[in-house]
């Protein structure tokens, strides 16, 4: 039986859809999702990795780097930087609304993306999981002088009621800081990412040195936030013009 012209067009469109190249955002989603699956598998098969890494930085029941001045200063700097970033992003949006002719170097959807990254990752995702999982911090375990039992990552536990260990909020905030790369010119973005990432990773790992988090708390806090960020950007990228127009309409 002969195929009609419409049937050929239908097959061609199906082939284009099936073999269409994926965007960078979709590739990033795939990589992060697979990373979460692989990391989950490793920590579930070898749960004692967390205890082993924490013991490296403990002398008996004492985490000997807790009072290290440089590390404490780094933590204070990261926490203060978070406040400065939020204020700066709100200021950028405000300048675009009230002084659009003088400050047009940044479309408002970009600082909005940064704000949403910090709100969704370090606040919503992290705080919900802290309550659901209820994992005790390393320094609260019996192994390190506390009275709580160790629970493997991703396992529901009643060992902690508030301010729990999983996932790390500061690791999530460090990951969310990568959202600032949208403010960097595209040609310099890769270089900026290479320069910024090691610093942010060390800020995140700093919590392991203090006995405040397990290695898995930091890794999952980072990955969950990255996944949330990419989803947010995927949504915002398709609506960037509409978002910018909305802020334009709010001008006095």
Automatic annotation (TrEMBL):
Superkingdom in the source lineage: Bacteria
Database matches in Pfam families: PAP2
Matches recorded under SUPFAM superfamilies: Acid phosphatase/Vanadium-dependent haloperoxidase (SSF48317)
InterPro entries: PAP2/HPO, PAP2/HPO_sf
Keywords: Membrane, Transmembrane, Transmembrane helix
Ranges annotated as spanning the membrane: 31-57, 77-99, 111-133, 166-184, 191-212, 218-236
Phosphatidic acid phosphatase type 2/haloperoxidase domain ranges (all copies): 110-236
Protein name (record): Membrane-associated phospholipid phosphatase
Organism from which the protein derives: Aliirhizobium cellulosilyticum
